[in-house]
Amino acid sequence: MESPCVRRGNGWSDLPLDIFYKIFELSCNGSFKRSLVPFLALSGVCKSWRSNTSRRCFQRLNIFWPLPGLEAKLCSKHKRELLHCDCIQASISALISRLQEVHTLKLHSVHKALQASKLTDSAWINMASSLRELDIGAGPVNFQVLERISSCINLESLKIRCLAPESDEFTSEARGVVLSKLHTLAMGVSYTAAPRMQHKGLEKFLELCPKLEIIKLVVEGRHSAFILEVPASLRNFVLHVRADLTSKVVVVAPGIAKLEAMDTRKVVVDSAACLKRVVLWPNIMLQLGNNCSTQVELALRGLHWEWYRLREIPSGVKRICLGDDFGQTFSKSGKLEFYSLFSTMFPGGSVEELELTTGVLSRVWYDEERRLSVQPSTWTIKHVFLVVAEDDIKAIAKTASNLVYSCGVQCVSMISPRDNREVWRWQRTNVPDPTSFESLLLGESTRS
């Protein structure tokens, strides 16, 4: 049936702009994630619609390749499978070049036909001043792509799935550009592709990013050690590290404030005078090297810790924090025997403070025979922080009082889990017995 607007001599280009926007929204299934299919389809209807797809309202572009249903189709021009034809790359570059502003670009592919290194100069130039968020999961990122990224001066968040070995050829000095707004960087490196060259490329790129707050590093593949050296000019940032369970990651970062490590064998931190907090997931060995802070807070997270790993807590750790799920696999019941646990974790080292949540306190039990076999000086703790809601005080009162009595605790602070605020403090003035301290806690519970 012939369209009424065609019979009147009008075409799709005569539709009001708000109707075009509605069609575009519906083609995205009601969401405003700008994927490749609607852009290419709508921009090909007519010249007017091609112009409309370049307007400022289309600032987010998510490109995932291959597209469903195109795996087996051939390029009409080159008679090659679309999965392996450069035509798709040319179309994407042309599309990006037409957009007036691109605030978010996500480029993901599992095939070589789509790679960030193949984006045209005009596409990168068009994004240089407007791009805020860039996520590249299409091909290894080489030094040429890094140089293109360094021209995006308003970039705030950057994610790169994998660096190429040639990334060490990146020269930031030639451009004299600083990514002063970039606060979050997620970077992947692979041991299968010259890791030493990759970490050199990463280090050079970090010199461009003086305001980074969060660095997320993913190390893929097995290797003896991956070394990350962060420029001393980068201060007060958080580093998240994930690697192979057999690998070691060495971090040299004078300005690091917090480190979180997952799925790796060992983390070595050197020259980290500003380090305040380390979060470890099960069975990661931590080594604090030269010129590290002696006031480090160590948080242990996760279920599957082995006892022998608890004996490897390094000197320099002043405070240990145990999360709700800590050590649930130590026994079938998930219970934690106090004297066995703490005589292992505190062998007369530098630990002075202990932070416990309701989830841990509710699983602790005391073996009196074990207490008599342990020297009191082995597990002396000066300050205990109880992260407990008011409604849970009664449930943990007895366990907490036994802790104070057994470890010669000098001070107890109760912390609100809602806002991390100290709501109650007890200071030792004499040697209490467990019953008296328990009464104090229960009294506090009644007043709240």
TrEMBL record:
Molecular function as annotated in GO: SCF ubiquitin ligase complex binding
Top-rank taxon: Eukaryota
Name the record gives this protein: F-box domain-containing protein
UniProt organism field: Selaginella moellendorffii (Spikemoss)
Higher taxonomy: Eukaryota, Viridiplantae, Streptophyta, Embryophyta, Tracheophyta
